[in-house]
Hints:
Blueprint: H1 15-30, E1 33-41, H2 43-55, H3 61-75, E2 81-86, E3 89-94, E4 100-108, E5 111-119, H4 127-139, H5 146-153, H6 159-169, H7 173-179, E6 183-187, E7 203-217, E8 220-234, H8 240-256, H9 258-269, H10 274-279
Parallel strand pairs: 4-6, 6-7
Antiparallel strand pairs: 1-8, 2-3, 4-5, 7-8
Amino acid sequence: MNFPNRIAEVRSLRGQEAFVYGLKERAKRQHCLAYGTFRVEVDHLETLRKEYSLAVAPITSVALYVKATALAVARNPAANAILFRGLLGTRIVRFHQIDVNLPVTRRLGERTITFVGTIRNAPAKSLAEIQRELTDYQRCPPEVSHSIRRVLWFDGKPLWLARLVHWWMGRSPDFYIQNVGTCGLTLGAGHHEHSFPVAPTSVVFGRGGVAREPVVRGNEIAIARVLRCSLMIDNYVVPGLLAEQLMRDFKELLESGSFVAEELRAAAGSAVPRHERQSV
């Protein structure tokens, strides 16, 4: 017997969905997206994260990935640029400051929203400062966050309005940078081998899953926790050699944990001795 399927629901793209659709549509239409994948050993980084959390302030791994993204781009400033279109043609605009985008999902009453959070001038901020901003995105009142207000403003708004906003963001560097950042980081679910981002920026690192697996160290095989990563670039702006250098720098930063160790040394050097602390 034949049981034909039936339509359960039809709804127009509006509000938050329209904004996200416009973002992905602009990425596909205006930019030449290319991908690479690589793996990062994170055992040493996790040890440093725990040490930092005890010695300085509690932080999550996301703060580490945000800082590593910013520092990798800082080492390759030509990648801190975005393609824009205009009446006089296409141009590549490079920015002085490195601002890192990342998706944030949180509950607002009975609904769940996902919005783009931006850590401004991320290379210059400590891991503790980055973590405070990440926590604030999750807990602050919606009315005090520009990123949340922007998404909520689209409630009930039609797709054409979201497209108009993204059309202007793809043409006005000033309007673009007022709303989002210059590079990005996406956070895949833990079971994913890789997470492949789609975004209208020139550099986006994707964090996939972490698993224990064999790794080669010299002439020996060891078991380590390995993070699967991806890098999306706009090939109009970032050539292959520059993309390869970005991957190497991101990997080196995470595996060495040098930026975490540097902050730990600075914190230890500025620590107040116990006898002085009691007299303050």
